[in-house]
Each structure stands twice: as structure tokens, then as C-alpha cells.
Amino acid sequence: MDFELSSNNNDNDNNKLPSFNQVKPTITTTIIDTKDEPKSPDYSNRAQWLRAAVLGANDGLLSVASLMIGVGAVRPDPGTMALTGLAGLFGGACSMALGELVSVWAQRDMELAQLIRDHEAKINPTPSLMEEQKGALPSPIRAASASAAAFAAGGGVPLLAAAFIKAYKARVAAVLATVSLALFAFGWLGATLGKAPPLRSSLRILVGGWIAMGVTFGLTKLVGLTGI
């Protein structure tokens, strides 16, 4: 018995199969558009003006109120307390603005120098990126203005509280109550804007303000008792 082996079918099937080189992999790329995705705010960008504003307001409250209460310990007439508060407000606002201007300008100079060194170290520096990074540097004028305005706003609180009260004890009580409320409010506002625990921050600022006013009153009263 003869058997005939035929390979025609197999050869035809093999011809139908694509070779390895003919197989091209297909890569599917999914592009996700993130333009419409909500971005969480960067609270670190608020640090510059928030620090200057909160610091200036607290300093204005405490400086002017402490001066008024301290001088009132030995000179209880309303005119002396008002003039003392005004002098403290004007001098403090100028001092805060100048101090903030000098410190932030020094910080800006250091950051700009480092930015220039980093830019020069690159193989292909991009001028547009350099200008963009310069624009992100802290502004001394903005920080000084925020600090002075906040100091004046804070210092005006005890002045307004004592402006229309002639009785000494009632005047001091009004200053203490108003300043305490303002300190708590400023602390709460600063903590809320910076996403910090508001109650703890407010209480810390309030207790510190009480200590500052109490020490100023006590030391001035002690000096007044010496007859100077």
C-alpha cells in the first residue's frame, strides 16, 4: 500500500500566516486633558503678604495699646493718651515699612543672585523662563506697603476705642476689650487664610497681647512711682 504525503495544504496555510516582521504592534495613547480639573490653591504663595499683614496688624494693636495704657498709668488724662497713641501709630507704621523693605529687599537680592547663577549654568538658557522666575520673586514695595497699612489699621483700633471716653478706668477697659477682640479676630483671620488651626493661633496671639500690655503697664507704673 502506497501512501502519498501532500504538503500543499500546509504550505498554503503557512503562506496565509503573516511573518513576524509583518506584525506591527499597535500602541494606544490616551491623552488626559487636565485643563478643566480643579486645582487646589497654593497657600504658600500667600506667605509673603499674609506674614507682613498679620505681623503689622498685631504690632499696631499691641504697640499703640501698650503705649496708651503704659502712659495712662502715670498720665491718665485723655489728651496725653491720645497723643501717645498717635505718635506710636505714625512712628510704628514708618518703622514697620522700613524694616520690611530692607529685609525683603535683601531676600530678593539673594534669590536673584542664585537665580542668575542657576541660569548661567544651563547649557541652553531660556530668557523667557528667566523673566518669569524674576517676576515670582518677593516684592519689597508690596511687603512694605502691606506692613505699614496693617500697622496703621491695627493701631487705629485702640485710638478709636479711647477717643470718646473721658473716665480713665472706663477708657482703659474699653481699650483692653477692643484690643483683645481685635487680636482674636486677626489671629483667626490669619490662620484661616493660611489654613492653620484658627482657635489655637487666635488664643496664642491673644495671650501674648495680654502679657505685653500687662508688662508695659506694670513697668511704666513702677517708673512713675519713683517720681521720674
How is this structure best described in words?
The chain starts with 7 loop residues before the first helix and ends with a helix. The protein has 7 helices and no strands. It has helices spanning 8-16, 47-72, 78-121, 127-135, 140-162, 168-193, 198-225. By secondary structure, it is an all-alpha fold. The chain is elongated. The chain has one domain.
User: How far is it from the N-terminal to the C-terminal residue, by CA?
Assistant: 141 Å
What is the percentage of strand-forming residues?
A: under 5%
Taken from the alpha-carbon principal axes, the silhouette is elongated
> Which value, in Å, is the CA radius of gyration?
35 Å
Written as H for each helix and E for each strand, in order along the chain, the element string is HHHHHHH
Count of separate DSSP helical elements: 7
Mean pLDDT: 77
Low-confidence stretches: 1-8, 27-38
* Helicity, as a percent range: over 70%
Give the beta-strand count: 0
| Whole-number count of domains | 1
Largest sheet: none
